[in-house]
Amino acid sequence: MRVKRYALLALLGVFLFGLGLAEILPPLDLGSPWAFLLLGGLLAVLGVRAMNRSMLSAFTQPEEVPERVYVRRRLEQGPRIVAFGGGTGLSRVLRGLKEHTARVTALVAVTDDGGSTGRLRLSYGLPAVGDLVDCLAALSDHPALPRLLDHRFARGELAGHTFGNLFLVTLYEASRDFAEAVRQANAILNLRGQALPATPEAVRLKARFQDGEEVVGEVAIRRRGGRIREVFLVPEAKEVMPEAVEAILRADLVVLGPGSLYTSVIPSFLPRGLKEALARTQARLVYVVNLMTEPGETDGYTAYDHYKAIAYHLGRRPEAVLVHTAPIPEGVLHRYAQEGRHPVAFDPKPFAVDGVRVVTGDFREEGPLAQHDPGKVVQALLQLV
Prior knowledge:
Elements: H1 3-24, H2 33-56, H3 65-75, E1 81-85, H4 87-97, E2 104-108, H5 115-124, H6 130-139, H7 145-149, H8 163-175, H9 178-189, E3 194-197, E4 204-209, E5 214-216, H10 218-224, E6 228-234, H11 242-250, E7 253-256, H12 261-265, H13 272-280, E8 284-288, H14 303-314, E9 320-324, H15 330-337, H16 348-354, E10 357-361, H17 374-382
Parallel strand pairs: 1-2, 1-7, 2-3, 7-8, 8-9, 9-10
Antiparallel strand pairs: 4-5, 4-6
Helix pairs in contact: 1-2, 4-6, 4-17, 8-9, 11-13
C-alpha cells in the first residue's frame, strides 16, 4: 500500500521541523529557521495524509471516506428504534429509517413456508430466511447489495432460490447455529443497524378461525381464507436472541408493521421473550395500519379491527396508530378491487374511546401501487420519538 515511502516522508518533515525549532531555541546558524519549520510541517502533513489515504484505499475509495465517516457519526446519534414485521412492508420502512438512524433493529417473522424459503425449511430444518434476507438488504450500506441478495436463479437445481437465501443457509451450514449465522450475516454486510429473527427456532404458524377450525402453515392459512380468531407459533418458541431483548428494552420507539396482519406482523412478536420485553419497555409503541385489506386474511377489517387484533395478541395496547386517510386514485382502487382488496376503512371514534393517539395523513407512495412511502412514514414516526 506504499506506506513506507509516505512514512519516511512524514519522518523527514518531522526532522526538518525539529531543525527549525533547534535554530529558534539555541541558535545553530542553520539559516532561516522559518524555512525549516514551514517545509518540515508541510512534508509531515503531506506524508501522514498520503499514508492515511493509501491505507484507506484498501477498503474504499478515498473520496468516499469523509462522507461515510460523517454519515456514520451522524446516524449513530439517531434514536433507537425497533421495527417488527416481515415481508415487503417492513423492508420498506427500514429503507427509510436507515437514512435517519443507524440504531435500528428489525425483528423479523420466520414462519413463512412458501417458495424458496419453504423449500429450504424442508431441506435444512431452519427458520424461514426470505423476509430476514430482505431486511438485511434493506439495512445494507452498499447500494448494490439489495440487488445481489435478491437475485433469483432461473435454471438448474438452484431455480427459484435467491442468492440471499442461499447466502444465509451457507452461513448456517458452516456454524450449525442459526443465531450465530445471523450474527455473521449482520457483520459481513455492514448494516446500518441490525436485522434479527423473531426466534432462531424453526417454528410454524397456526391459525384458529372463527368457526373453530385450526390450520397450520402460512400457505395453508392463506389458501383456506376466512375470519381468523387468533394465531400461535407451533411449537411454542422458547428461544429469542439476547440482542433482540436488549434492543427492545433500550428502544426510544417500537414500530409494528406495516405488513400482513396475521402472517407477518403478529408472528414477529409472538415469542414469549419478546412479548415480555415489550411489556417492560418504556418505549412508545406505534402500529402502522395497512392501506388495503388482504383477501382471506383481513377481508372487511377496519383500522380499528387491525388495532384490536394487535392489542389482543400482544397483551398491550399501542399508544399510537398511523393511518393513511388521503384519497387513493381510482385506477389503483380498480386494480386492487379485482384482487378482492379494498382500502382499510377508518373511524376515529373507537380510537378516541380507547385513548389511542391516531396519526392520520397521506402515507402512500406515488405510483400504480397502494403501498406505504418510506419517507413519509418515517417522518411521521420520528415525530413520535
